[in-house]
Every structure is written in C-alpha cells, then in structure tokens.
C-alpha cells in the first residue's frame, strides 16, 4: 500500500487549521516536514518548535526531511520534538561511517532513520549503506523549493533500490519527493516507491481528493 506524505512546505499558513482538518480527514498517513537552513539549500523553513505544534494538530506520522548542512547537530533535536522518521542528506555527511553513526543514534532515540540523495547523486553511493536505514528518499527535484518539475531520472534510482531491497528480502521504505502529481506518482509507484511526498499538488487542490488520486 502506498503511503502519502503531504509536504507542509506548500500549506497555506493563513488557513492552517482548515488545511490540517482536511489532511486529518484524508487518507494521508504521514506528514512531510521540510527543514531548510539557507546553507545546504538556498531557502529557510521551520525549526523544532513548529514541529511540536504540528504534533498537536495531527496524529499522522511526522516525516522530517532535513535539508541542512549539519544533520549530526540537529537531527536529535527533531527527534525530541516528536518526529517518527528523520531523513538526512548523504551529501551533507563526511563519509559512509558518519551516515551509519547518525542512523544508529537516531534508532537509539526511537526514530526511524532515512537517507536522501539529490538528483545529481548516483544511487550507487547507497549500495553499501541502504541496509543501515529504514527509508531511502530519492529527490526528484533539486531540493529547496516546492512547485518544480519532476525529474524522471529518479525512476531508475527507485527501480534499482527496489531490486536491492527485494533481493535482500528487506522491508525498505522508498520515498520520492518533488514534482509528484497523479501521473508522476503512478510512475514512481510502478518503479517501486511506496511513499509519495507531494506539496503543491495536494495543497493547491482539494486536499482529500488529491491524496486519494495518489493512493
Ligand atoms: C523540496 C521539498 C519538497 C517539496 C515538494 O525541496 O523537499 O518536500 O515540498 O514540493 P512539490 O510537491 O510541490 O514538488
Ligand atoms: Zn521534502
């Protein structure tokens, strides 16, 4: 079954309560929370206190996507703030050993760790790493902004990851983020993704119907 994770980056914060009521009435099982630091990506978003507020607004699993240069410093802070899933970027880390150490630290805090790659990063960098994670997030746009066009190179990466997971008999969540709508979402599901993030497609349409069209 496909998990839908609406990205609050595109939520209309002047309509916060009504939009969250719609998310809570929808079949979305997760809520995607984009953290940007103005350094790893050229945009700024939300910190841990706002995550605590969302914890009160929904019982969906909080899916935190850290687009920050120093995930080792801040990932534990988001764990304390109520995240169930925390994904950091491969490109923000020094090496594979650092990635594994942070995954282990997050597990010890009761959080499921995820690792993400940007569109320019080959999936091969994850071959010796993915088994240390519960989730791999394939970016299908350059991280930083909502409303961009889907990059189809993500599909091959999803296919490879699903093959690795199936061959190992592993229960890996494969998430895709960027430019997801009913058409691109279907392509991703067919390639083997089981978590679809969508921001503008969900929040700029009827929220319940848009989620249904992605399931
Ligand atoms: C982009 C963020 C995405 C963003 C996706 O860097 O990671 O989660 O909200 O937005 P859409 O679905 O509009 O491409
Ligand atoms: Zn994201």
Automatic annotation (TrEMBL):
Keywords: Carbohydrate metabolism, Cobalt, Isomerase, Manganese, Metal-binding, Zinc. Its EC number is 5.1.3.1. Binds 1 divalent metal cation per subunit. Pathway: Carbohydrate degradation. GO terms for molecular function: D-ribulose-phosphate 3-epimerase activity; metal ion binding. Substrate binds at residues 7, 65, 144-147, 177-179, 199-200. The active site is at 34 (proton acceptor), 177 (proton donor). A divalent metal cation binds at residues 32, 34, 65, 177. Its cofactor is a divalent metal cation; Mn(2+); Zn(2+); Fe(2+). GO terms for cellular component: cytoplasm. It catalyses: D-ribulose 5-phosphate = D-xylulose 5-phosphate. Gene3D superfamilies: Aldolase class I. InterPro entries: Aldolase_TIM, Ribul_P_3_epim, Ribul_P_3_epim-like, RibuloseP-bd_barrel. It comes from the Bacteria. One of its GO terms (biological process) is pentose-phosphate shunt. It is an enzyme of class 5 (isomerase). Catalyzes the reversible epimerization of D-ribulose 5-phosphate to D-xylulose 5-phosphate. Belongs to the ribulose-phosphate 3-epimerase family. This is Ribulose-phosphate 3-epimerase. It comes from Holdemania filiformis.
């Amino acid at each position: 079954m496909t998990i839908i994770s609406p990205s609050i980056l595109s939520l209309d914060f002047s309509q916060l309560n009504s939009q969250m009521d719609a998310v809570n009435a929808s079949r979305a099982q997760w809520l995607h929370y984009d953290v940007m630091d103005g350094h790893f990506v050229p945009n700024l978003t939300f910190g841990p206190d706002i995550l605590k507020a969302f914890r009160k607004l929904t019982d969906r699993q909080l899916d935190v996507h850290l687009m920050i240069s120093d995930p080792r410093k801040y990932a534990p802070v988001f764990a304390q703030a109520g995240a169930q899933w925390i994904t950091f970027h491969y490109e923000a880390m020094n090496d594979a050993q650092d990635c594994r150490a942070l995954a282990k630290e997050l597990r010890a805090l009761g959080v499921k760790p995820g690792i993400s790659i940007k569109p320019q990063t080959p999936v091969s960098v994850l071959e010796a790493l993915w088994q240390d994670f519960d989730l791999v997030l394939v970016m299908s746009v350059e991280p930083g902004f909502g409303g961009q066009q889907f990059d189809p190179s993500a599909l091959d990466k999803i296919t490879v990851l699903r093959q690795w997971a199936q061959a190992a008999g592993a229960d890996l969540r494969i998430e895709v983020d960027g430019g997801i709508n009913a058409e691109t979402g279907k392509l991703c599901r067919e390639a083997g993704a089981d978590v679809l993030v969508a921001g503008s497609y969900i929040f700029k349409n009827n929220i319940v119907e848009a989620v249904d069209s992605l399931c």
